Amino acid sequence: KAKGKKVAKGATKEIKQHAVLGAGIMGGGIAYQGAVKGITTIMKDINQAALDLGLKEASSILEKGMQRGKVDAKKMASTLNKIIPTLDQNAIANADLIIEAVVENPKVKAAVLAETEKTVADDAIICSNTSTISINQLAKSLEKPERFCGMHFFNPVHKMPLVEIIRGENTSDATISAVVASTLKMGKTPIVVNDCPGFLVNRVLFPYFAGFSQLLIDGADFTAVDKVMEKVFGWPMGPAFLLDVVGMDTADHASSVMSDGIPERMQKIDNDPVTLLYKAGRFGQKNGKGFYDFS
Ligand code: NAD
User: 125 pairs with which residues across the strands?
Assistant: First the structure.
């Protein structure tokens, strides 16, 4: 366990090293975003294949940047060198800011957060990238909930400017200031929101997904809905394509958390097409098949 350093009262803790827990769609993207802004980032997973994919994703973003003349070979090498993949929990011991981005499952997250607190310094800040799970609920797995908040990035991380910083009832002002400063250092736009199911963006987005599911149950064709929302209404993508980007597993877990948390606003849907696709193993872009086929 690393030793904690004292931070002067009123000063914002300086964050020098990040750790990202989970190297999936989000963890890989968050690791890339820190690294490209010069921050050494330990990327921890329990699965070597996920670490390899996380690094591959970072390389492919940089390669596209090179093709457009925005990144040179030196920047590519220095960014990749700043991402340190590991399966070893002890490798995160010196991180100042730990961003948990493992599967959207409250039990798994609680276990990962509790283990993390035992590994890192007493003054390290711990955040969760959860899409919907209550920050107050997750905070219960920590001995020092004042150093914990939500830090919710959006997918794809390198393109989406917004980060929701979710203040739990015990989160300290110092933690919020440090996470706001880190978000800005990562080139992103922070907003601070209170804890509630779905926070701000998913509070709007998931009822929209639920409306889409109801439409499919009523007999609509998903390609037709996407076409209308994208080509005619003018959104960058329709709901089926967006669900494929988000991942059916994540969307299904998140919908359940929302309908459990605010049942009066988001009812559970019987035979929700999103749940059926998830159960059929069609997770979306992450495994090449969801509403659409990507292979
Ligand atoms: P994902 O399935 O792509 O990745 C999850 C990763 O966590 C996997 O690589 C898995 O091996 C790893 N993992 C599981 N248990 C672990 C453990 N104990 N320690 C370390 N790693 C572990 O999922 P994702 O889409 O990247 O989502 C991750 C989190 O981010 C979820 O909480 C999700 O709700 C949230 N989120 C997702 C999106 C999205 O659009 N996919 C957007 C914002 C937030």
Answer: 97
Query: Would you place residue 295 in the very low, low, confident or very high pLDDT band (cuts 50, 70, 90)?
Result: confident
> Hey, where are the domains in the chain?
17-194, 202-286
Q: Which atom of ligand 1 is nearest to the CA of 27?
A: 26
Q: What CATH fold (topology level) applies to the domain 17-194? A: Rossmann fold (3.40.50)
Phi, psi of 127 (to 5 degrees): -125, 160
Q: Is the CB of 102 under 6 A from ligand 1?
A: yes
Q: What is the pLDDT of residue 2?
A: 60
CA–centroid distance, residue 172 to ligand 1 (Å):
26
- DSSP-derived pairing of the beta strands 148-153 and 162-167: antiparallel
Query: Are 174 and 13 within 8 A, CB to CB?
Result: yes
> Is the Cβ atom of 21 under 6 angstroms away from ligand 1?
yes
Mutate to test the pocket of ligand 1, among 30, 45, 103, 237 (most ligand atoms within 8 A of CB): 103
> Domain 202-286 carries which CATH code?
1.10.1040.50
* Residues designated catalytic: 152
Task: Extract the tokens encoding 164.
Answer: 């929701």
Instruction: Using the mean position of ligand 1's atoms as its centre, give its distance from the Cα of residue 152 in Å.
Output: 12
HEC secondary structure over 75-123: HHHHHHHHEEEECCHHHHCCCCEEEECCCCCHHHHHHHHHHHHHHCCCC
Give 109 Cα–ligand 1 centroid separation in angstroms.
10
3-state secondary structure of 20: strand
Q: Is the CB of 87 under 6 A from ligand 1?
A: no
Task: Give the Cα separation of 36 and 186 in Å (integer).
Answer: 8
The yes-or-no verdict on residue 219 having pLDDT over 90 is yes
ipTM of the prediction? 0.98
3-state secondary structure of 287: helix
